[in-house]
Write the structure tokens for this entry.
Amino acid sequence: MERALSFEIVRRFPGGPAVAARASWPLDGPPVTVLFGPSGSGKTTVLRALAGLDRPEAGSIDFGGERWFDAGEGIDLPPQLRGVGLLFQEYALFPHLSVAANLAYGLHRLPRGEREGRVAELAGRFELGGLLSRRPAQLSGGQKQRVALARALAPRPRLLLLDEPLSALDAPTREALRGELRHLLERAGVPAIVVTHDRVEALALGDRLAVLVDGTIRQVGPVHQLFSAPADVEVARAVGTENVFPVRLVRSEDGLVVVRAEGAGGAELVAVDPGGLEDRAYACIRAEAVLLEPDGGHASSAQNRLAGVIASRRDEGPLSRITVACGLELVALVTRASAERLGLSPGLRVVAVVKAPAVRIVPRTT
């Protein structure tokens, strides 16, 4: 029987929204699941319930066949009996203790020899051997991250929970530490759940994504699947799909559908038929899937070629966000070098090119 984490919890807050989240995924295989969604969607509430730090009003939590929580049966195992390791935003290292003492903090029940052996083992695995006598104030951001993760793993937890582990860092440090954190999670050897609202972080850290919208988990699956094929419009918006248009079905043939955008422009789009499509739906297109060509440029195999005028351009570091009025307001994300080379600026006539498989059609009602 496959080991799995399964939960169905309800948590209500006075005067606020309720969290009613249900999901299940295997504990063997890819190690890192990301709880992803906008601020206020319920990510930390779910994490705290899994950790045993917050008691839901209803529901249950099962880990590998063991029941951690059951509101109806009165079961509520404390965090230490669940065997979870926690890593918080600020790392919460004890400033008055050395790195060695921080690592040993959760090992006080072990005999001294075993405790020292475990600290030495973790120091070797996380390259902390030369830092054991230092205090947290003497560490860099990356060193603090390694110490905090090693401390969370010291008691040999069965599940590792990380709540926005990089959000307290400045942007350059955060970018530098993403790759290192992913590497450390892979080496940790235990399933991990990471809470984040940052799309780049989710892509860099996660194997599996669980998307929360308004307190409910709307879709669970491989990271690439959720970003490229959201199940509904709420998931599409949550994962940052820049172009989401209400459309109506025009016709379907040969495995393709033609839809028309609602509104004044009424541009038509060709997409792969998802099956079971009713009259009204949403078309979702990621900005990086939109190519821009000069008006009158060469033909291509792409099904969608929408002539229009650049309405705006916003440079964002090495990228440029271009909005094209072409029967709908279509956002394209191109490199800044390409934008300069093509002279992409407001008023220029261009053709927006989108291949049919890049147009994701999802139901209007969910």
About this structure: The CA atoms of residues 16 and 40 lie 10 Å apart. The chain has a mean pLDDT of 88. The chain has ten helices and 21 strands.
